[in-house]
Amino acid sequence: MAHGRLVFVIPASSTDAFEEFFNHVVRLKWDTLLRETYVEGGGSHPSVGSISVNKGRGWKGGFSMRTRDLTYDPPRHAAAEMVSPIGPFALWAASMRFRDRNQSTCELTYTYSLRLRPKWFGWLLDPISGLLFAWETKRRFKAMSRYVVDQRVKNIA
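-> structure tokens emitted (157 positions)
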């Protein structure tokens, strides 16, 4: 199994950063990982117990995942897990914690676990998949930060 903990400084308050990530309509404007994301049954935001569908963008287009929200406590903490194995994934779970640093930045701590299947395949490739997932997650949150700054500039102009 691959585990990771990544810490990002986002140029927004916890409230704004949480909204940028969990508002599925807004998220598709900046998210480098997803081409489609929605809450089953409707709505723009998840809630505890809700199921979200997430479909990959670009070379990740063949991957999609249904996730269940385990914790949803705006603007502090959210956690989700994959509903059932799909494609090469046996397990995926992640947690996001937001903490204000000052009025214009927050710290986002993203913790994840993933395991590939079948077990022998995962034993060989889980470490590589963890590195690839960490790289994509860093890319993704850099895109979110750029989007937040761009929106702030647009609102000033």
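Strands lie at 2-10, 34-39, 51-56, 64-73, 77-82, 89-100, 106-116.
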